[in-house]
Design goal:
InterPro entries: p53-like_TF_DNA-bd_sf, SH2, SH2_dom_sf, STAT, STAT6_SH2, STAT_linker, STAT_N_sf, STAT_TF_alpha. The protein is α+β, with helices and mostly antiparallel strands. The chain is 48% helix and 16% strand.
Length: 682
């Protein structure tokens, strides 16, 4: 029920539209609420979108869900809620009669995924991410005020105790006198005053404990928000691999950690003073254990990988990474803290403990946590790390070495000022793929891209779905393309449609592909029909060409890009001769071609494609110059004169060399490329 407990406070901030999308009519919010524990105990992630062999298991889960909901309805004392739940359970019974109850389980799985995604952000009422209430500033301020209130209460108790001691001493000095003596009025007055002081002391002591309990509870909640924000930072860092915007500034989180450590220290001190003043009172051990647990959690979650290692690492090659400790300023002085790195497998990462078996040999695998007084950062930087050798796991079926994921595990032991015992802490890097040859890099990066784009927050390392909806793939491809090319122009719906036709091998289909599942095999295991390369290998080639040779052309919208030949004929068929557009080659990795309208042999018009230009071609003569040289193209689609649009990309002929050599340039024609010598007469 942990997920629902975190989700419930955020519901009030979600717009109605998001709530309706998150909890559809087939799975109402009431079901999620009343069956929260049971729902989160089931293995919804095991359901695959097209594995119909799981249908009996899916039906059993649905039947069990209906029975549980009926029991909840039967025992609900609220008649309105009881009727409502009975109505929902009847609808679910109807749902279980559909031919494929497996779809329902897939829906539940997606709802839980969306909840986890929403919890990586604090959502404001307008649906936009809110920066965690200025990274917990409001909550921490309230905690500090609560601690001050406890300290004031303690000081008040101290003053009351001193007044009480004084009154009792004065009372003892006049005791023994005759009660009939007129001075007895002073004795009665002092006795009343002592009783009043004792009452005030008792009330203040109770308030002191109540404030301590409230402060510890508030600290737990505030720290839970901090831990969630640290996890969110790690998740955003992971998503940055495909170009998702990421603020890597850890300063606010470090301040938050330090403030909570200070609050924890103050509360532990106040609790010990309670023991001094009143002995071991009720709730003392509970509060002591809570503060110790919160402290341990904070110390262990404050180690983060600030600068990740490359996610594709070639053996025998140097790389660097930086690990930062957010409580570095609070470490006890003395012996240097040594951080050790080791490479671990996916299976070892799931165990969550430091493995005994080494699966790889790391060079330069230790670094000292050093504090920089200027930046106030405490970091261990591994500058010249290298993987000398790696031990591979047994692979299943057609699994390639470029699909095997590892990680770097960083461990150390340190002591925090004010704490008696040292703490063993660790942090794990993002998944990495280890290769032995540069030719494996593109396939290895495909593994990383799939992992980054489609993994879930707080997953079991490093589980990732085998299939995802095409619309998710579109988001990932566009984000990665923009990031890699360094452009603000994203892929549009025409590009996405062509890419879908290509990856699904359905060039004649015009329907919406958004919800069609695309598999890892289609992405980078199976070669495209009639080709020798996979979809990712082809797409990566386009990105590389655009980044190195065509960024400005793409950014200014001069390249249509991803378009199929059928769509090409539709938009060019009624255009005059000489109209052209630029599209990425469908048949060659890393090529761009010019499609244009030209005369046919029978006097009509036909659409022709010029042989693709590769990076090698464009290095010798830029795209602008090639477009200028080809006389049969005059207007770029839809009807813009090429000499105006591409003028800024034309190069000026070189002047004669002072050494007497004649300059030359490459000129492009549609039949061949030849050298034209330019001779400038004196």
């Amino acid at each position: 029920m942990a997920l629902w407990a975190q989700m419930t406070p955020q519901l009030q901030f979600l717009p109605t539209q998001i709530l309706n999308e998150l909890y559809p009519d087939t799975f109402p919010l009431d079901v999620r609420h009343y069956l929260a524990s049971w729902i989160e105990e089931q293995r919804w992630e095991n359901f695959d979108v097209d594995n119909m062999e799981q249908e009996p298991q899916a039906r059993r889960l649905l039947d069990q869900m209906v029975r549980l909901l009926q029991e909840v309805a039967q025992h609900n004392p609220n008649v309105v809620e009881r009727v409502k739940l009975q109505h929902i359970s009847r609808n679910l019974v109807c749902t279980t009669n559909i031919p494929n109850p497996h779809d329902f389980c897939w829906t539940v799985r997606d709802i839980l995924r969306k909840e986890r995604h929403l919890l990586t952000q604090v959502v404001a009422t307008n649906g936009t991410p809110q920066p965690a209430r200025e990274d917990g500033k409001t909550d921490v301020d309230n905690l500090v005020l609560k601690v001050l209130e406890i300290q004031n209460c303690r000081q008040t108790l101290h003053q009351l105790q001193e007044d009480l001691n004084w009154e009792k001493q004065e009372m003892e000095s006049i005791q023994g006198q005759n009660e009939l003596d007129p001075q007895n009025s002073d004795q009665v007055t002092r006795q009343n005053r002592i009783q009043q002081l004792e009452y005030n002391y008792s009330v203040c002591a109770k308030k002191r404990m109540q404030l301590l309990q409230e402060a510890v509870c508030a600290l737990e909640l505030c720290q839970a928000s901090l831990i969630l924000r640290i996890k969110s930072w790690r998740w955003e860092q992971h998503r940055a691999t495909i170009g998702v915007q990421f603020d890597d500034n850890l300063g606010p989180l470090q301040t938050w950690c330090e403030q909570l450590l200070g609050v924890n220290s103050n509360l532990r001190q106040e609790l010990m003073l309670v023991k001094r003043d009143h002995g071991v009172v009720e709730q003392f051990h509970t509060l002591q254990e809570s503060l110790a647990h919160v402290l341990q959690t904070l110390i262990k979650n404050s180690l983060v990988v600030d600068k990740q290692p490359p996610q594709v690492i070639k053996t025998q090659s140097k790389f660097s990474t930086t690990v930062r400790y957010l409580l570095g300023e609070k470490m006890a002085p003395g012996k240097p803290v040594l951080l050790k790195a080791q490479i671990i497998t996916e299976a070892q990462a799931r165990q969550g403990v430091v493995p005994n078996e080494n699966v790889g040999e790391l060079i330069n695998s230790t670094a000292i946590l050093e504090h920089n007084t200027a930046s106030k950062n405490t970091c261990a930087t591994f500058r010249n790390m290298s993987i000398r050798k790696i031990k591979r796991a047994d692979r299943k079926g057609s699994e390639s070495v470029t699909e095997e994921k590892f990680a770097l595990l960083f461990t150390t032991e340190l002591t925090i000022t004010g704490c008696e015992s040292p703490y063993s802490i660790q942090a794990i890097s993002l998944p990495v793929v280890v290769i032995v040859h540069g030719s494996q890099e593109i396939n290895a990066m495909a593994t990383i891209i799939w992992d980054c784009a489609f993994s879930e927050p707080d997953r079991v390392p490093f589980i990732v779905p085998e299939r995802v909806p095409w619309k998710q793939m579109c988001e990932a491809l566009s984000s990665k393309f923009m990031s890699e090319v360094q452009t603000q122009r994203c892929l549009d719906r025409y590009n996405f449609h062509f890419l879908a036709q290509k990856i699904f091998d359905q060039p004649d289909i015009t329907e919406d592909f958004s919800n069609m599942p695309v598999s890892w095999a289609q992405f980078n295991k199976e070669v495209l029909p009639g080709r020798t390369f996979t979809f990712w290998q082809w797409f990566e080639g386009v990105m590389d060409l655009t980044k190195k040779c065509l960024r400005d052309y793409w950014s200014e919208g001069l390249i249509f890009g991803f378009i199929g030949k059928q769509h090409l004929h539709v938009i060019l068929q009624n255009k005059p001769n000489g109209t052209f557009l630029l599209r990425f080659s469908d048949s060659e990795i890393g090529g761009i071609t010019i499609a244009y309208v030209g005369p046919s042999d029978n006097g009509g018009r036909k659409i022709q494609n010029i042989q693709p230009f590769t990076k090698k071609d464009l290095d010798s003569a830029g795209l602008g110059d090639r477009i200028r040289d080809i006389n049969c193209i005059t207007h770029v689609y839809p009807d813009l004169p090429k000499n105006e649009v591409f003028k800024k990309f034309f190069t000026v002929p070189s002047p004669p060399n002072p050494d007497g050599y004649l300059p030359f340039k490459l000129t492009t024609v549609t039949s061949k490329i030849y050298l034209q010598v330019l001779i400038k007469k004196p």
